[in-house]
């Protein structure tokens, strides 16, 4: 059962990575188009900036969830490094519970923001509801909660093969890697 859950979480992690990557790609294509239109063609397009902002929101919240699972998030360990080893797991549990609380807060108010703004439309994209553009807040927060719970139940997953892709762990040969071997 544990392996099935971890495989499902691997798929969710990959989905977050792909969504974040595509959002970043679109953003990096759209911004130069806006600059070119404004400074070379002499007229500014209205759509590149709101599209880039939407991509940034998607990239931020799905990327943050994936970053948490990969252990790539910013962590201030000044206090936890200085306490006795026996206290460190307790502090880690407190930090994870606080992360769940923060993610629940963002999810709750993100849903509220989506509902309040659902009947409004973006001027540059008349078919796109404002509430839909805020959907990455609660979705990203719920994904983060899932990865936090996974961490609390199964431990860190930052050395799984799917997480090691493109990292020094993934660049080593299988005999040198700390990543588990994939099943064939």
Structure overview:
The chain is mainly alpha-helical and 184 residues long. The chain has one domain (2-171). Helix content is 66%, strand content 4%. It contains seven helices and two strands; from the N terminus they run H-H-H-E-E-H-H-H-H. It has helices at residues 2-39, 48-70, 88-116, 130-133, 136-154, 161-164, 168-171, and strands at 121-122, 125-129. Strands 1-2 form a two-stranded antiparallel ribbon. Helix 1 runs antiparallel to helix 5. The longest helix is centred in the N-terminal third of the chain and has 38 residues, at 2-39. It starts with a helix and ends in a 13-residue tail after the last helix. 22% of the residues are buried. The model is unreliable at 170-184 (pLDDT under 50).
**How many distinct beta strands?**
2
Biggest sheet, strands in spatial order? Answer: 1-2
User: In angstroms, what is the radius of gyration?
Assistant: 20 Å
Structural class: mainly alpha
The topology string of helices and strands comes to HHHEEHHHH
In terms of per-residue confidence, which ranges show pLDDT below 50 for 5 or more consecutive residues? 170-184
User: How many separate helices?
Assistant: 7
Number of domains: 1
In percent, how much strand structure appears in the residues? Answer: under 5%
């Amino acid at each position: 059962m544990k392996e099935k859950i971890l495989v499902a979480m691997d798929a969710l992690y990959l989905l977050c990575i792909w969504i974040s990557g595509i959002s970043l790609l679109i953003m990096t294509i759209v911004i130069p188009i806006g600059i070119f239109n404004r400074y070379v063609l002499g007229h500014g397009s209205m759509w590149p900036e709101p599209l880039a902002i939407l991509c940034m929101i998607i990239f931020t919240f799905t990327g943050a969830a994936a970053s948490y699972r990969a252990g790539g998030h910013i962590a201030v360990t000044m206090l936890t490094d200085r306490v006795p080893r026996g206290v460190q797991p307790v502090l880690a549990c407190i930090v994870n519970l606080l992360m769940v609380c923060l993610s629940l807060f963002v999810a709750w108010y993100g849903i509220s923001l989506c509902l309040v703004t659902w009947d409004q439309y973006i001027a540059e994209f008349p078919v796109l509801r404002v509430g839909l553009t805020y959907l990455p807040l609660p979705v990203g927060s719920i994904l983060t909660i899932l990865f936090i719970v996974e961490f609390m139940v199964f431990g860190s997953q930052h050395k799984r093969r799917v997480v090691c892709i493109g990292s020094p762990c993934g660049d080593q040969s299988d005999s040198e890697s700390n990543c588990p071997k994939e099943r064939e």
